[in-house]
């Protein structure tokens, strides 16, 4: 004890005086000296035991949590990422352009409803179907407006509205992506300032009607594509829809959490569209690889079939097994 208080002379001297007293009293009451340390050491042992128990309890709890590898850990970060204008992808029905169809497939000029089964068969298996699809600028019109500055308006140019993927035979999909638009390059970080309107129209004299008129839609980051995803928003003709979008960022935790993180940026951009891979796209690429190796054909549902001229896995190609 004395050595612990070495730093201050006063205290060590006081201690020495105290111990003198106790040695005095020891002479008068022998045995007492033993009694006090007994209580103290018993207390010390008790406290140590209690602390060890607490320590073990907590360690075991942590260990148990670690060994369970819980995967539903939610952490939300707010306000750190800049809010950016999203891209929009839409998929529409009745997308076949009458004129373009006739140019590529002579047998469908002077189209009549009786040819529909034949056309459906073509849409199920033909390659490069994007070539007969309605032109994006003929279906979609856009308008950006700053409500507080009524004179500030602009629209998306051709390069910002593109035919991208498909869900053949029923849907052809188009993506509106502001990258490369000089106005949006400077304003994409201020979505609350702008109102973005989009008009979708079917020119019934220029297209072939095969299904109900319908549009499915999805907002996504401009660096990816919702190809292969089932869009949750379905729009019907004559509807007027308003949306407020919210940006959320999800970060997957590294091991030991079994989140199986994959850095999609490392894979580079998709060969058929300048966007990063997604988990969905990855599994489609995998399917395509397998059917190509096994059956030398591309699955009907492959999202970029509209841009490819490959054997499609129809029943004739794969056999009905
Ligand atoms: C269909 O194709 C023709 C010829 O390229 C074009 O003039 C017309 O605008 C297109 N219509 C649609 C809806 O894409």
From TrEMBL:
Swiss-Prot/TrEMBL keywords: Ion channel, Ion transport, Membrane, Sodium, Sodium channel, Sodium transport, Transmembrane, Transmembrane helix, Transport
GO cellular component: membrane
Membrane topology: Multi-pass membrane protein
Highest taxon above the source species: Eukaryota
Signal peptide span: none
Keyword Lipid metabolism appears in the UniProt entry: no
Localization per record: Membrane
Transmembrane regions: 42-60
Record keyword Acetylation present: no
GO molecular function, one term: sodium channel activity
Family statement drawn from the similarity comment of this UniProt entry: Belongs to the amiloride-sensitive sodium channel (TC 1.A.6) family.
Protein known as: Uncharacterized protein LOC108864383
């Amino acid at each position: 004890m004395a050595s612990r208080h070495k730093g201050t002379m006063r205290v060590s001297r006081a201690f020495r005086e105290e111990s003198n007293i106790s040695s005095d009293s020891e002479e008068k009451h022998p045995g007492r000296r033993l009694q006090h340390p007994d209580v103290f050491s018993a207390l010390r042992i008790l406290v140590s035991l209690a602390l060890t128990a607490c320590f073990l309890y907590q360690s075991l709890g942590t260990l148990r949590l670690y060994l369970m590898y819980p995967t539903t850990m939610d952490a939300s970060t707010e306000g750190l990422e800049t809010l950016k204008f999203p891209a929009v992808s839409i998929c529409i029905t009745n997308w076949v352009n009458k004129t373009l169809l006739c140019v590529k497939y002579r047998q469908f000029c002077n189209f009549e409803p009786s040819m529909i089964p034949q056309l459906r068969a073509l849409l199920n298996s033909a390659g490069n179907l994007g070539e007969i699809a309605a032109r994006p600028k003929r279906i979609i019109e856009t308008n950006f407006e700053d409500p507080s500055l009524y004179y500030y308006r602009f629209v998306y140019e051709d390069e910002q509205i593109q035919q991208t993927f498909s869900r053949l035979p029923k849907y052809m999909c188009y993506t509106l992506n502001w990258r490369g638009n000089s106005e949006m390059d400077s304003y994409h970080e201020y979505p609350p300032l702008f109102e973005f309107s989009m008009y979708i129209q079917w020119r019934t004299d220029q297209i072939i009607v095969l299904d109900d008129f319908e549009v499915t839609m999805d907002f996504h980051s401009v660096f990816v594509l919702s190809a292969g995803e089932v869009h949750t928003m379905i729009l019907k003709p004559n509807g007027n829809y308003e949306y407020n979008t919210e940006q959320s960022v999800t970060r997957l935790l590294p091991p030991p959490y079994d989140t199986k993180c994959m850095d999609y940026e490392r894979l580079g951009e998709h060969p058929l569209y300048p966007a990063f891979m997604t988990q969905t796209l990855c599994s489609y690429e995998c399917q395509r690889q397998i059917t190509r190796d096994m059956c030398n054909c591309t699955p009907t549902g492959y999202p970029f079939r509209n841009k490819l001229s490959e054997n499609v896995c129809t029943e004739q190609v794969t056999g009905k097994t």
